[in-house]
């Protein structure tokens, strides 16, 4: 009976882990989607498009957006991976 209970708990843990992984994937994909939509938007409002923003502003935005899309993504991804990792109790060594 205990084996069945353990198996049920393992299945529930796996399902929960998949749900958490799927949720993290969705968040990261949304983050990247928003930032990648910025590229054509910046171009469209820049001097080559509608001319709403200056060349300097466009250049600054084309420097800032890749920073957030790469470095920002990496920081978020690493934090989410740490959250997914199983917690291990600290081992205390006998003196």
Walk me through the structure.
The chain is mostly helical. The protein has a single domain, classed as Rhopdopsin 7-helix transmembrane proteins, CATH 1.20.1070. Helix content is 78%, strand content 0%. It contains two helices and no strands. α1 runs antiparallel to α2. The longest helix has 44 residues, at 2-45. The protein is elongated, with a radius of gyration of 22 Å. The chain starts with a helix and ends in an 11-residue tail after the last helix. The model has no long low-confidence stretch (mean pLDDT 81).
Task: Give me a quick take on this structure.
With 95 residues, this protein is mostly helical.
Question: What is the mean pLDDT?
Answer: 81
Number of helices: 2
The CATH architecture assignment turns out to be Up-down Bundle
Shape: elongated
Radius of gyration: 22 Å
- What's the CATH first level? Mainly Alpha
- By helix and strand content, what is the structural category? mainly alpha
Helix content: over 70%
Determine the CATH superfamily. Rhodopsin 7-helix transmembrane proteins
Note the gap between the termini. 41 Å
Unreliable residue stretches = none
| Overall number of structural domains | 1
**Strand content range:** under 5%
């Amino acid at each position: 009976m205990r084996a069945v209970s353990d198996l049920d708990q393992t299945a529930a843990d796996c399902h929960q882990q998949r749900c958490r992984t799927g949720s993290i994937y969705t968040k990261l994909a949304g983050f990247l989607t928003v930032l990648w939509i910025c590229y054509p938007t910046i171009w469209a409002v820049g001097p080559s498009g509608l001319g709403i923003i200056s060349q300097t502003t466009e250049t600054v935005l084309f420097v800032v957006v890749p920073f957030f899309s790469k470095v920002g993504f990496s920081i978020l991804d690493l934090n989410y991976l740490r959250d997914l990792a199983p917690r291990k109790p600290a081992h205390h060594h006998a003196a």
